Amino acid sequence: MRGGRHKEDEKRRSLDSWEPLTRLGTLVQSGEITSLDEAIQSKYPLREHQIVDVLLPELSEEVLDINLVQRMTDSGRRVKFRVCVIVGNKDGYIGIGLGKDALVRTGIEKAVRDAKVGLTHIKRGCGSWECNCEGTHSLPFRVIGKSGSVEITLKPAPKGIGLAAGDIPKRVLAFSGVKDIWAQSKGQTRTTFNQAFATFNALQKISLIKCTQS
User: Fold this and answer.
1) 94-136: per-residue pLDDT in tens?
2) Residue 210: is it exposed, middle or buried by C-beta count within 10 angstroms (0-12/13-18/19+)?
């Protein structure tokens, strides 16, 4: 509890001292844009993570993976931590980010900022012929996502099936608000990063196709 309160205090101080550097940030701070939907649908790109902090403060975050990476330079070997983080409100908004730093905590902060800047809204629905309830517990249709050698297929499932997927895709889907799904993966699925981004890529494709359910 104490750690969570400290994090909230830091976020509040950061927002109080925030000076927007982009047009979208200025519109958000002035109150002309009051929702994340408006921000995403505007003609301005989302470049500042503070915009998400203002418009969607109830975001949750979770570390998916921490890896040690090494790089040889003229001055010797440099070691950094590569962190993969997922953020979402479990109701349609989700983002995945990467951060690298010599310190784990700083790497996590960078990954969270990266995930917030890449936040997207996922269109949910009920595309299962076994259910056809017109709800938003699953996906409206079948989609395929890829990242590296990993390919994942997500299929709509009826209510009660749950998230029939591996551990990493299941965590990504839960953060997006999807409750029922059938998933099938192939490739080097031991790679956490590629599994997460392949699932995220599949969810993003839903927004590229017009559908009646949201």
Assistant:
1) 999 999 999 999 999 999 999 999 998 998 988 888 887 888 8
2) exposed
The sheet carrying 76-88 orders its strands as 60-73, 76-88, 93-101, 120-121
In whole angstroms, give the CA distance from residue 9 to residue 60: 16
Residue 76: both structure tokens together: 């010797």
Q: Say how far apart CA 176 and CA 16 lie, in whole Å.
A: 29
CA distances to 30, 41, 102, 111, 154 from 191, rounded to whole Å, are 43, 33, 21, 17, 18
Q: What share of the chain is helix, strand, coil (3-state, %, to 5)?
A: 35, 30, 35
Residue type, 41: Q
Asked whether the predicted pLDDT for residue 196 surpasses 90, the reply is yes
Of the listed ranges 13-27, 69-83, 188-202, the one predicted with least confidence: 13-27
